[in-house]
Specification:
This protein has 92 residues and is of the alpha+beta class. The protein has a single domain (10-89), classed as Ribosomal Protein S8, Chain: A, domain 1. It is 33% helix and 32% strand. It has helices at 26-44, 56-66; strands spanning 10-13, 16-19, 46-52, 70-76, 79-85. The strands form two sheets. It has a three-stranded antiparallel beta sheet, with helices on one face. A two-stranded antiparallel sheet has the order 1-2. α1 packs parallel to α2.
């Protein structure tokens, strides 16, 4: 992996901004966000986030592996708003 230096960008995740490094690489950004979604699906059992529309299949697989329902709708500019799990199953 080529080190391009530290980026100052952020990823949008469930209404929160998450700082990331090297965010000019779309595959890095996608993997970073998918990792957060995987961890959150295991821990929280419910998450809503905006992800790159190219990640839709991986988000479905995360939901399936966690045994949770999945829904998505276009969020504009190549993004999808995804929901994994049900709000009532999330952290209280």
């Amino acid at each position: 992996m080529t080190r391009r230096g530290y980026g100052t960008g952020t990823a949008r995740l469930g209404g929160m901004s998450v700082p990331v490094l090297d965010n000019d690489d779309p595959l890095y950004m996608r993997g970073f966000v998918l990792g957060i979604l995987w961890e959150s699906a295991q821990r929280d059992r419910w998450i809503a986030a905006d992800v790159d529309d190219g990640a839709a299949e991986m988000v479905m697989r995360i939901a399936e592996a966690a045994g949770l329902p999945f829904a998505a709708e276009p969020a504009g500019e190549g993004m999808l708003h995804v929901v994994i799990g049900r709000p009532e199953d999330g952290p209280q």
